[in-house]
Every structure is written in structure tokens, then in C-alpha cells.
């Protein structure tokens, strides 16, 4: 594993932690704040509430991805590992950590970790994921949460 296999970005958002977490944990909201314009729609119509849940998304390329929730703490942490529909996770992880900085401010850290990715055909795409790309999602999330 190298440091380049874990990419992260943080942003302070002028919104309560609960509002921001709801936007992240509700799959139907994710295409609104996806800064890479990679998501079309959620095929899962319920909010994530626990480790072990799976929510399904359709990408702009028409791929259907199951996202396996592997970390969850209400209002503070959510992380998932994508897989092909019905398959096992590829090994990379998307994590969101929220830290309240008062009633109306929250530090949000978005991390992409591909240190356990084993499918070499996915390495080029994983390597192309930058902190700037993660920041684009944070910026859009902030815009929506601060409305």
C-alpha cells in the first residue's frame, strides 16, 4: 500500500451535521451532489441506517453498482464498497466522516481508499481519482446543504 492509494479531501460546511449526513446516507440524493457526474439514479429507495445494508446505483455509463455499507455511525460516519450487481465488492472504499463544529458548522472528510483493490483492470481508474475530484463532491454537497 502507498499513500497514493488513499486520497482524501475535507471541507467545513455551514450546515448542521444531521442535514449533511442525511444527504449522504440517502442514495436518491447522491446524484445531486456527485461532483464527478458519475451517478444517474439510485435503484434503492431507502436511507442507509446500518452496516450490512446494500444500496444500488446506476452510473452514467449504464453500470449497476451495489454499494455494501461496511462502516456506519449515525450522523458521523458512513463507508461503502462497490460491486457489480449481485457480486462481491471490488475492494475499494468510499468513506464520509462528519465532525460537528457547533450547531451550524460541520467538517466533512471524503476519502477514497483503493489499497485493497485486487482487480488490476480497475487500477487505472482508481489511480485517476484525485483529491480535487473528491473536493468537487464536497463543494456540491455544501451548496445543497447550505441552501
UniProtKB/TrEMBL annotation:
CDD domains: SRPBCC_7
Alphabetized InterPro entries for the sequence: Polyketide_cyclase/dehydratase, START-like_dom_sf
Gene3D superfamilies reported in the protein's UniProt record: 3.30.530.20
Record Pfam families: Polyketide_cyc2 (PF10604)
Organism superkingdom: Bacteria
Name of the featured protein: Polyketide cyclase
Organism: Hoyosella rhizosphaerae
Lineage summary: Bacteria, Bacillati, Actinomycetota, Actinomycetes, Mycobacteriales
Amino acid at each position: 500500500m502507498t499513500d497514493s492509494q488513499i486520497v482524501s479531501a475535507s471541507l467545513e460546511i455551514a450546515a448542521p451535521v444531521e442535514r449533511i449526513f442525511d444527504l449522504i446516507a440517502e442514495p436518491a440524493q447522491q446524484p445531486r451532489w456527485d461532483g464527478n457526474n458519475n451517478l444517474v439514479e439510485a435503484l434503492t429507495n431507502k436511507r442507509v441506517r446500518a452496516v450490512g445494508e446494500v444500496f444500488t446505483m446506476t452510473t452514467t455509463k449504464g453500470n449497476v453498482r451495489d454499494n455494501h455499507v461496511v462502516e456506519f455511525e449515525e450522523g458521523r460516519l458512513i463507508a461503502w464498497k462497490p460491486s457489480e450487481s449481485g457480486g462481491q465488492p471490488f475492494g475499494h472504499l468510499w468513506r464520509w466522516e462528519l465532525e460537528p463544529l457547533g450547531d451550524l458548522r460541520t467538517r466533512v472528510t471524503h476519502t477514497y481508499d483503493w489499497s485493497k483493490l485486487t482487480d488490476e483492470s480497475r487500477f487505472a481508474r482508481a489511480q485517476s481519482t484525485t483529491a480535487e475530484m473528491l473536493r468537487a463532491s464536497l463543494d456540491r454537497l455544501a451548496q445543497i446543504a447550505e441552501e
